[in-house]
Amino acid sequence: MKTAGVFIFITCVISNLLPGRAFLFSRSPVPRSTANIVIASTTDSNNGKNNSAIVLEKKFCKKSSSSLDKVALLKQQAQKLRAEADSLELLVNETKEDRLAKAERKLEGWIDDLFVNITINDSTQVINTVEEVARVLVEGRYSPEQVDKVFQRLCQTDQADSPMMELLADATNEVDVLEREKNPNKRWNHVVERKLRKKMFAMRYGIDPEGVGEE
User: Which of 58-72, 109-123, 132-146 is most confident?
Assistant: First the structure.
């Protein structure tokens, strides 16, 4: 009751000081967590104009739940794209390794086809003669590029004067001297033995044979 009397007394005093104006007061406290602006309005009874006094309250910044949902969605999409990229990279690496392994098996097959006549066991093989290697070069339609790949493989394990390199060079000479009309292997260019000899000569002096003998 004492509080109500004080409120009425203040209202009467202000009404006497500012006649013709109606004041709107609220005794209910404004929740600080929901409102950031409180407006106390006065109305002039003579001209009907509104005069507003704006009281600023401290504003609390909060992230909306919708923004958090968008961030989570973008994070999930990024993780999915990263996983797909990793899968593609693995597939490319596997494909590259498969190609290399296939080329390696093919090269090993050429070497066996050219040089091996009979395999007795894992450590014993009967090697072809010069004439037999030359026959395989002709009938197998070997190209100079294939012969060079075989030679490069022999360079990894053999010396320049090794029997295998000599056998290959002598066999290519047998094919080089054939007349073109009598050679069914039209891929042959008839200068293979000369290039191999140049490479072997470079190896004897410690020179990398790759690129040597190319015209």
Answer: 132-146
What does the chain look like in DSSP terms, one character per residue? -HHHHHHHHHHHHHHHHSTTEEE----SPPPTTT-SEEEEEEEETTT--EEEEEEE-PPPP---HHHHHHHHHHHHHHHHHHHHHHHHHHHHHHHHHHHHHHHHHHHHHHHHHHHEEEEEETTEEEEP-HHHHHHHHHHTT--HHHHHHHHHHHHHHS-TT-HHHHHHHHHHHHHHTS-GGG-S-TT--S-HHHHHHHHHHHHHTT---TTTT--
- Placement of tokens 């009967």 in the chain: 126
At residue 70, the pLDDT reads: 79
Joined tokens for residue 64: 């909306």
| For range 83-104, the mean pLDDT | 80
CB 114 within 8 A of CB 129: no
HSE (side-chain half, CA atoms, 13 Å) at 74: 6
Closest CA to 192 of 213, 210, 166: 213
How does pLDDT run across 35-81, given as a tens digit for each residue? 444 444 444 444 444 444 444 444 444 556 677 777 888 888 888 88
Q: Burial of 130 by CB count in 10 Å (0-12 exposed, 13-18 middle, 19+ buried)?
A: middle
10 — pLDDT class (breaks 50, 70, 90): very low
**The pTM is what?**
0.55
